[in-house]
Write a structure and sequence with these properties.
Elements lengths: L2 H19 L10 H10 L3 H10 L6 H12 L4 H27 L4 H13 L1 H6 L6 H20 L3 H15 L5 H15 L6 H16 L3 H9 L18 H7 L4 H4 L5 H5 E2 L2 E2 L1 H22 L4 H22 L14 H14 L3 H21 L14 H9 L7 E6 L23 E4 L3 H5 L11 H6 L2 H4 L5 H10 L9 E7 L7 H9 L4 H5 L2 H20 L1 E8 L2 E7 L2
Parallel strand pairs: 3-4, 3-5
Antiparallel strand pairs: 1-2, 5-7, 6-7
Length: 567
């Protein structure tokens, strides 16, 4: 490490930090996954905390980290987001040292480029501002990569132990982190460890991970093998969408993060119109990144073989799981490969012989990334979490919510908005008694013959709702709405129906058509979540319009708030 490269690192870290704290305080508040993370982390340590973790789909380390963070600092949104900024910046620093370890003697350039790519990555900046596991996950994966590379250069017991330790921490952060660790460890045995050291490697790495993980086996097993949502609840697998992984990794355009388009081709060409902005700001930086990555892979060294095999095997495993309906295939679920991709791209860039070529592609890449980041309304720091739960709270305040009004929430329970509700104001009393039909309790209101515990699992459970969706009549839901909501309204009372439009976009006639069609393909492909929430919304709206006076609606983010009044 020389003085010049260290100076570059300091400048990169300052820049990366500034990019991550810019627009850090989000006016829309936390969205679903962030709220879950915060809610679990604030649970009482020796009673509810581990029970709450067990009920979620992720491993416990990030929740423990966030609990410690909240104990030291505040749990305001801004401070909670800072908990992701710190590992995000530490990941940038670790990429620098990984670059040095990768090249050893002449690694200064690769180290600086790797740190720079991590520092300006819009994907990493976005998750450095989100109250989720992914920033910490990236940092831990960088550490795993760093000590894997150290094993190549010096297969010592210390490096074996630290590789094992950080691998364990990675597994304890991400439920499917074991996939990356498994292939990383297997690839190290093939590419890094001389035959005479294989026995030591197995002892200090593989057995080390197993021994350190033993106390956590019951918790990990429960998370991995318990019944949970099947992926078709959210979205069916789509091969075309997998291409967004490349643009999310290399460009400032994060379409896979927000599911803007159903297919990759729709992003740059739809209804006969070419999206020039997408071609310029997404495709061009992505092509530059891919060219550099390929050039890095073509250098036939053991380290390249290790990283490429881990990338390919990890992606293929997650892809197969997504095709089987076990998970949804999105970029954030394979964030472990990102440090390896960045390092190979950085080395590939430095390996080009032509200085003029490197200056040209570097200038284009940097200008496009930073210009989009600074100017675009959809850049990483300006992307609105449209499901943010502060949005409907502020909207109803502006709409003049009164203490005698009633609220019906769809998708989330009323308690999920309490973080942003001032209960010292008597006009906010309707929140405490709000009626809710959520993604978790819908079966209770849809039919008396439905078992809530089985409604998230498999095609058979989904088919139980098919007759309900095929009909506009639902006496059970109608009676439930009367009992819990409509009969409680008195003259002059207003009803605020709070709907999350991103999960309820099917009109009732489309739902009926999908469920009653002779060809079942449409029903099989339609995500259950969208059918359920669309059906409940439409049914409730039609009933409200028959029995109450309609006062219009108000849109904010992904929310639409309908207003009715009892005549």
């Amino acid at each position: 490490m020389n003085k010049k490269s260290l100076t570059y690192l300091i400048l990169i870290v300052i820049g990366a930090t500034l990019l991550r704290i810019w627009h850090l305080d989000k006016p829309e508040g936390m969205w679903n996954d962030e709220y879950l993370t915060w809610n679990i982390s604030r649970a009482r340590l020796f009673t509810d905390f581990f029970t709450a973790i067990n009920s979620n789909c992720h491993a416990p380390l990030h929740y423990i980290y966030l609990k410690l963070w909240m104990w030291i600092f505040h749990d305001t949104d801004k401070f909670l987001r800072l908990s992701s900024v710190v590992p995000g910046v530490l990941g940038v620093i670790t990429m620098y040292f990984a670059g040095f370890e990768f090249k050893k003697k002449d690694g200064a350039n690769t180290a600086v480029v790797a740190a720079f790519l991590a520092g300006i990555s819009s994907f990493l900046i976005y998750f450095s501002q989100e109250i989720r596991i992914y920033s910490l996950l990236f940092f831990l994966t960088c550490l795993v990569l760093l000590y894997a590379l150290k094993i190549f250069n010096s297969p010592s017991k210390k490096n074996f132990f630290l590789y094992s330790l950080f691998s364990l921490l990675l597994i304890l952060t991400h439920t499917i982190g074991f996939v990356f660790v498994f292939f990383s460890t297997a690839a190290l045995m093939v590419f890094a460890v001389p035959k005479k050291n294989t026995k030591d490697f197995m002892l200090f790495s593989i057995l080390g991970v197993v021994i350190l993980a033993l106390p956590f086996v019951p918790l990990i097993s429960s998370i991995l093998f318990k019944n949970g949502y099947f992926s078709q609840w959210w979205a069916p697998f789509n091969f075309s969408r997998t291409l967004f992984i490349f643009t999310d990794i290399f460009s400032p355009v994060l379409y896979d993060t927000f599911h803007v388009y159903n297919t990759f081709s729709d992003a740059f060409y739809k209804n006969g119109v070419i999206n020039i902005g997408y071609l310029v700001f997404a495709i061009i930086p992505t092509l530059i990144g891919i060219i550099c990555f390929i050039n890095g892979v073509l250098n036939p060294k053991r380290t390249q073989g290790y990283m490429l095999s881990v990338i390919v095997c990890t992606v293929l495993t997650v892809l197969i799981a997504a095709m089987a309906g076990k998970i949804v295939f999105v970029t954030k679920y394979i964030i472990e490969i990102l440090p390896l991709v960045i390092l190979l791209a950085a080395d590939g860039f430095c390996a080009f012989k032509s200085k003029a070529f490197k200056i040209s592609i570097a200038t284009i890449f940097i200008v496009l990334n930073l210009f989009f980041f600074a100017v675009s309304k959809t850049s990483a720091v300006r992307l609105v979490r449209e499901e943010g739960q502060r949005l409907p709270v502020v909207a109803m305040q502006n709409m003049g919510l009164k203490k005698n009004d009633k609220i019906m929430f769809l998708y989330y329970p009323n308690g999920w908005y309490f973080k942003y509700v001032d209960f010292s104001n008597p006009d906010n009393a309707p929140y405490a008694i709000a009626f809710c039909i959520t993604k978790n309790n819908y079966s209770y209101f849809m039919s008396k013959n439905l078992d809530h515990n089985e409604m998230y699992h498999g095609v058979e459970a989904k088919n139980k709702l098919k007759p309900v969706f095929a009909s506009k009549k639902n006496n059970f839901l109608d009676a439930s709405l009367d009992m819990f909501l409509f009969k409680k309204l008195e003259k002059g009372d207003r009803l605020f129906l709070v709907d999350l439009t991103s999960v309820s976009f099917f009109p009732m006639n489309v739902i009926n058509e999908i469920a009653s069609a002779e060809n079942t393909a449409m029903y099989d492909k339609a995500p259950l979540l969208y059918l359920v929430m669309s059906y409940v919304k439409n049914f409730t709206l039609e009933k409200a319009k028959r029995e109450l006076v309609y006062g219009g609606y108000y849109d904010t983010g992904a929310w639409r708030i309908y207003v009715f009044e009892k005549a």
